[in-house]
Design goal:
The chain has about 280 residues and is of the alpha/beta class. The chain has nine helices and nine strands. Helix content is about 40%, strand content about 15%.
Length: about 280
Amino acid sequence: MPQKGGFIKNVKRAVGIGCQSLQVFVGNPTGWTPPKLDPAELRKRGEQVQEEGIRPLIVHAAYLINLAAIKEEFHQKSIHLLLETAYRAEYLQARYVVMHVGSHGGRGFTPGIDFFIKTLDQVLHRWPEQVELLLENTAGGGTSLGGTFISIGNILNKLEAKTSVGVCLDTAHAWAAGYDWTTEEGFQKTMEEIEQYIGMEKVKTIHANDSGTPRGSHRDRHAHIGDGYIGDHGFRQFFRWKWPQDLPVILETPEMGSHWDAINLGRLRYFSGLISEPPETPEK
């Protein structure tokens, strides 16, 4: 949702189009400095979200955060901002904080993963117990980390901290990384990899986004549900799988705040079998 109108107004608007779960930023998603911490205001917002029947509330960490950063200044800023995000999520009574795995920046894939794990262990020892951190798969390519479910599984298995860490599965990122949602064989292979290396019980949130780029492009370009390369068949196959009924699904599709929000939501419900007819799409 756009920021215009304030937090509660946008929560009510989301509820009005049928949203049951929400994801928010607690500050500028492309900035290093979060707003001044105001526990009373955050608690009030969290209570109002619950009163509107939203379950769960999810916080997305800023995009700049990179726990594998080579430059020490960025590394320390990333640690600080991630923890500040977690503390704000706790006051909001949010269940999850979602974070991109990041980039090794030229350090190399294996050293980058090792450094990420070492840093994440340090962060988790200061992490609030009521909030669970979710690692989001990336589009891969270049110096990006977390482009495969195997690599994310390796991170989870090597963490020493006892704090629970789960996974946020982004459909568009997985597609861009080379995973296939559109064929029966590709879908089955992908789900088997998630089960073997991560465990389905670790998938706590789904980012449902179509992709504006071909499979394996390693480019992160989201599209409206059914209008991209994953398409109707891919999403129908994905959402007819045996997902838990209470698994939250978040839309990160283009044109936030427009009529497309309700359309994308309706398409998800149609592909999930919750409604019998797809929503009407206005002519372009």
